Amino acid sequence: MSADCVFCKIVAGEIPANRVFEDQLCIGFPDINPQAPTHLIIIPKEHIVSQARALAEHKSLLGHLLAAAADLARLQKLDKGYRVVVNTGDDGGQTVHHLHLHLLGGRTMHWPPG
Q1: Distance CA 43, CA 25 (A)
Q2: Could you report how far apart the first and last alpha carbons of the chain are, in Å?
Q3: Which residues pair with 26 in a beta bridge?
Q4: CB atoms < 10 A from the CB of 44, how many?
Q5: DSSP per position, 57-104
Q6: Which of 24, 52, 93, 99 is the most exposed place for a label (fewest CB within 10 A)?
């Protein structure tokens, strides 16, 4: 846990979040600045700074996060499709330095994303 990380504070219960999904490894909750009708954030309970800092020992956790995104997409009835995004580093658009996935759906996604 990182003392100054907002996502670590959510994991610890210090900051409230509308947890729409939680298991032993991760938490899913709505993004506070949604970019689609459905925009959920999926965070591992373990503090990993970014995808770039993930190690071989995190392979199982990374797969688990993607499986959680698929479960959440089914729960949200995103049957027509959705997008999973991992912003990595400042140039990649990462604003919270705790690995997280964005699950976006409920509208047609365009390419290129930006």
Answers
A1: 9
A2: 31
A3: 44
A4: 22
A5: GGHHHHHHHHHHHHHHHHHTT-TT-EEEE---TTTTT--SSS--EEEE
A6: 24
The verdict on whether 97 is a catalytic residue reads no
Strand partners, 12: none
Q: Among residues 39, 98, 100, 102, which one is catalytic?
A: 100
Over the stretch 29-82, which tens digit does the pLDDT of each residue have?
A: 999 999 999 999 999 999 999 999 999 999 999 999 999 999 999 999 999 999
> Tokens representing 99?
């690995």
| Best CA proximity match to 54, nearest among 11, 98, 96, 92 | 98
74-102 confidence digits (pLDDT tens): 999 999 999 999 999 999 999 999 999 99
Domain 6-105 CATH assignment equals 3.30.428.10: yes
CB 30 within 8 A of CB 36: no
Domain layout of the chain by residue ranges: 6-105
